[in-house]
Amino acid sequence: MSTTTTTTTTTTTTTTTTNKPPSHPTLIQVHRSPIPFASGAYSLVSLPAGSLFCPITGTTPSRKAYTSVQTGRDTHIELNSDLVYCNHSCAPTLDFDMARMEVRVVADRDLKAGDPLTFFYPSSEWEMDQPFQCTCGAGEKCRGVIDGAKKMEVAVLREYWLNPHIEEMVREREGV
Ligand SMILES: [Zn+2]
């Protein structure tokens, strides 16, 4: 994509000039893959269950897309940071709280340095822009096709922390 005509005048110029600098250099290690959807984020820190991982800043309003995160009934944002590399898992390490705009370690498990940074996409997404077959490796806890909270059973959703807008839409669907 780069059309830079390199007229290298210093020895400090490297290929990294075509990438954005890490947004969370002390927290997140990004493993980039040329294979679509195979990139991922890994933790550089160990933190206790339930603690703040980082605030969510620098977002911009967006239409629903495969990189966007749903923040309300009809609202979506782009993260514009390395948080976008946090993949879905059915046994996630993080909760993305889009009401308080913060990322927390899940309430029932400590985060260890080296762990994949993941969250349960249906905790924010009612209907995924691009449903996918999950390969999270969570064994029988893996939910298979992930297409958002809309089609998931309440009993399954109850095993996860959910954003307020998803809670509300589930209650509405169930008529309670
Ligand atoms: Zn899974």
TrEMBL record:
Region described as Disordered: 1-25
InterPro entries named among the record's database cross-references: Flavunoidine_N-MTase, SET_dom, SET_dom_sf
Domain SET: residue ranges: 84-121
Origin superkingdom: Eukaryota
Amino acid composition bias (Low complexity), ranges on this chain: 1-18
SUPFAM superfamilies named among the record's database cross-references: SET domain (SSF82199)
PANTHER family: HISTONE-LYSINE N-METHYLTRANSFERASE-RELATED, SET DOMAIN-CONTAINING PROTEIN
Name the record gives this protein: Galactose-proton symport
Organism: Aspergillus saccharolyticus JOP 1030-1
Organism placement in taxonomy: Eukaryota, Fungi, Dikarya, Ascomycota, Pezizomycotina
